[in-house]
Amino acid sequence: MKGTHARSVRKSFNRFIPSALRSRLSAAYSSGRLCDVRLVCSGAVFPAHIVLLAVHSEFFARMSGHGVIEVERVRPAHLDLLLRFLYHGEVSMPPSDYLAFLECAQFLGMNSLFVEVRKEVRQAEEVAADHEEEEREGDPKGQVDG
Question: Judging by beta carbons within 10 Å of its beta carbon (0-12, 13-18, 19+), is residue 57 exposed, middle or buried?
Fold first, then answer.
């Protein structure tokens, strides 16, 4: 089946944040409550919580105390994916966004996140490559000898 690899894939970050805290952070982020920093990225503004950003990012840890943080060299769509990943514990994205997502995490000094997601991406790419190879070889599963 061509085109099956273009669908969104969900990445989970749940092991890093306990579920009760994750649900409260998610609700606070979604409602904009208690946000103490605004990230500005190519004109887009993202209200956020510096404590969550700083514990995951060397870049944001250095910027704590600033009410507005300019985020350069990152596309707003990728920063949005990264923030949703941090706050909600998971995110869905097309495979074509993986590399930019990883580059965004790496640029912002989110090293543990970068390593974890890079490992998952490599595993997903290996599975996709194996699947494509099976399709090219005419996977014999399900065929009946006649």
Answer: buried
pLDDT score of 12: 55
Tally Cβ neighbours within 10 Å of residue 55.
12
- What is the helix (H) or strand (E) element at residue 115, kind and residue range? helix 111-136
In the chain, what are the helix, strand and coil shares in percent, each to the nearest 5? Answer: 60, 15, 30
Calculate the CA 4 to chain-centre distance: 21
Q: Which amino acid appears at position 77 of this protein? A: A
The CATH superfamily holding the domain 13-136 is Potassium Channel Kv1.1; Chain A (3.30.710.10)
Ramachandran quadrant class, 54 (left: phi over 0; alpha: psi -120 to 50; beta: rest): alpha
Quote the pTM value: 0.69
Residue-range domain boundaries for the chain: 13-136
